[in-house]
Amino acid sequence: MKRLLMGVCLLLTVGMLLSGCSGDGCKNEVLSAYNNTLEYLSSFSLTPDSDLKGIRQQGEDQYTGHYQAEYREFTGKEILFGGTALERTAGSQLTVTCKLQVSSGQGVLYLADKEGIHPILEGGGEEEVQIQLTSGDNYFISEGKAWTGSISITIS
Length: 156
Description:
Distance between the termini: 28 Å
Strand content: over 45%
Number of strands: 6
């Protein structure tokens, strides 16, 4: 994936140079094209709708929306929302409202970014938090170990 990304970036840069692009305008065009490429390619990192245990309703972009699922002995990860970008077009501030119910096993919702894993809600309950996205990877992940229960998450 990284080689493909580097290849696309190299092609974009060479294309800009060959088209006579120069100065700050060119720099902004290259950065914008790179950012758009990152966002597009990162959409393939999300768990496909057909593989999700619940129903995802996408919001204005791949970072926002609503997800609801009932889990029965669920062990695994679902990458629900997020992406990779230098800068998210709609801004870097998000509100996450979530509710976890855990009857048995373990369940957690967390944000994974370039600095690590940041639990949002673990073991059950309700939470509303403000998230400041960083440049790079930002993915909201539901993870369970023999989790029986439910999750409801809205990101706006």
